Amino acid sequence: MKYKLLAASVLATLSTSAFSATYQLTELGDFEAAKHTYVTDVSENGHVIGVANGLYNLPIDISYIDFTDNSIESAYNNEVRTFELSDKEITFTLNDIENNDAIYTNADAHAFMVRFISGLSGNFEYQKISSPVAVKYSSTSAIEQPLFDIASVDYNGLTRSTSNFYNGVAEDGTTVGWGSAPFEKTTFTPDGETVEETWFTRDFIERGILISAGGVEVPLVPEFNEYGGTSKASDIVATDTGYIVVGNVSVGIPTERQTTLTDNCDGLDEPIMACINSFNNNNMNNRGLFNKTAVKWILDSAYNVTSTELLGLALTPKEDEDNNPFISNALAVNKNGIAVGFSNTRYFDRDATILTMPTYFKDGDIVDFISQQDDWQGGKAFAINDNDIVVGYASKGIEGKLRNKLFYHDINTNTTVFPEDYFISSSSYANDINNQGYIVGEGEIGETESTRISEAFIYKIGDDKITNLNSLLPCYDTDGETGFSYKMVEAKSINENNEVFGVATKTVEKRNSLGEVVTDINGNIEYESVAVAVKLSPIPNGEVENCKAPDAEFYERSSASFSWFGLLLLPLVGLRRVFRF
């Protein structure tokens, strides 16, 4: 399996004229409890936040599980067949899990139960588990920030049942994000029955939160909080009097949807919040239950919310559009108080077609600034600098498929530019921009038979094209012979010192779901690629190294180590893109 070598000739022509230095890569603090680490935001004073994923030793509660139930027996039989297809003998039985503590001692048994439970995420009669956790990076480690998770009453440690999205950090270290309420194991007796059932419910689906540098926590509760409501906090900037925080909040439930909830979620056959969560998860258009609008909160220096401004939608709902919800979201804000993000809007010549387009929110106006007449059909704005230049991506059909393309938009001149990226059908994303006009992001450099491969870039406004950040890194490790250990795949943030923070891959000893080093049948240690949070620092007076062009054999070998990455990032690819949805 090989890359389509679209990248080899492209990389050789990328401009490096804007840079007088190469970059030194430094891995940020390790989080030993998880396989992968990522960056989501950085302050000018050096505060770094992110996410760790692939937690080892996820807690599994088996106390309520009927191991004679057809669902788990069928899953186990499939597991046996999977082992047989790999010429291996399965190392555990369901009896071992139920009675012999196998999930604590046998990594295969633990991994099986994690997959089984995860595959039932929409069934609220089973435990809920979640692997991504919010982290703050120090010089030596990554420290977990639980957001809304709490200590479990069924096992040691946190419940590990919450979603955790850590999004923005201010210059003084105050952070914002959003998460879900922890699931609680409860008993419920359906109407007309006499036997109690075990269910897992939570108080709310999602809620924004501000956490001060000193640990003060301020949940950002929506005014419309029926069924808990929803809120998200995506970005924060410090002001002379306090803070500006942006995100979105629930403002209502469409009329027809509310009627459906009233008719179905009556608490007779299942707990009301289990029913609410099911309807939210099963929404076909991925908008959830609630009408949600972008919001700007103003807080004083004591973290009191002094005003809440709903920023609105880029369309006006019609009277007959009372089934599907409409959404806008502010993903970033600058010191001028201008927010950027996205909003549902109407297709320019098809009134009934609803698109999601990049927008900015300024002085009470919602501006949908990407031209649909040029065939752009979607996108989001991820960042804005203090010169009011917006960056993000927009989507259009290219070579028969919908592709995403990075852009920058100058609000003051009302001009939008789509810089040349790696190749015509490459999807690319601009994640951040500093006040000097340097933009960072990632774009696809090629593909295997099943996965499109992305690498990080940097771009200076006014240049001809983007520069692959890997071309500005060393060719070799310190021994001068071994190829450089890291590959930059995502650039998430850039500060005014042109330091870039993002995600790289490297090869490490493979570990199983219990965190144990994996060996093959001969006792040899196996290896795998993992994602690590990194910082790239410019080297004064450095020179760009002219690395030997990779040959086809290199790409063939690399494809095996990179193929995991596309699968790994399905829930996480472009952390700003997902965590600031």
Q: Count helical runs.
A: 9
Low-pLDDT residue intervals, each spanning 5 or more residues: 1-21, 551-580
β-strand amount: 35-45%
**Biggest sheet strand line-up:** 1-30-29-28
Give the rounded overall mean pLDDT: 90
Topology (SSEs and partners):
Layout: H1 6-12, E1 23-27, E2 34-42, E3 48-55, H2 70-85, H3 94-99, H4 102-105, H5 107-118, E4 133-137, E5 142-145, E6 164-169, E7 175-179, E8 184-188, E9 197-201, E10 207-211, E11 217-220, E12 231-238, E13 242-252, H6 255-264, H7 272-281, E14 291-300, E15 305-312, E16 328-333, E17 339-347, E18 350-362, E19 365-368, E20 378-384, E21 389-398, E22 401-410, E23 415-417, E24 428-433, E25 438-447, E26 452-460, E27 467-468, E28 487-494, E29 500-509, E30 527-538, H8 552-568, H9 575-579
Antiparallel strand pairs: 1-30, 2-3, 3-4, 4-5, 6-7, 7-10, 8-9, 10-11, 12-13, 13-14, 14-15, 16-17, 17-18, 18-19, 20-21, 21-22, 22-23, 24-25, 25-26, 26-27, 28-29, 29-30
Structural key phrases:
single chain, 581 residues, alpha+beta, four-stranded antiparallel sheet, 9 helices, disordered N terminus, disordered C terminus
Can you characterise this structure?
The chain is of the alpha+beta class. The chain has 9 helices and 30 strands. It has helices spanning 6-12, 70-85, 94-99, 102-105, 107-118, 255-264, 272-281, 552-568, 575-579, and strands at residues 23-27, 34-42, 48-55, 133-137, 142-145, 164-169, 175-179, 184-188, 197-201, 207-211, 217-220, 231-238, 242-252, 291-300, 305-312, 328-333, 339-347, 350-362, 365-368, 378-384, 389-398, 401-410, 415-417, 428-433, 438-447, 452-460, 467-468, 487-494, 500-509, 527-538. The protein has a 4-stranded antiparallel sheet with strand order 1-30-29-28. Strands 2-3-4-5 form a 4-stranded antiparallel sheet. A 4-stranded antiparallel sheet has the order 6-7-10-11, with no helix packed on it. It is globular. The two termini are 34 Å apart. The relative contact order is 0.14.
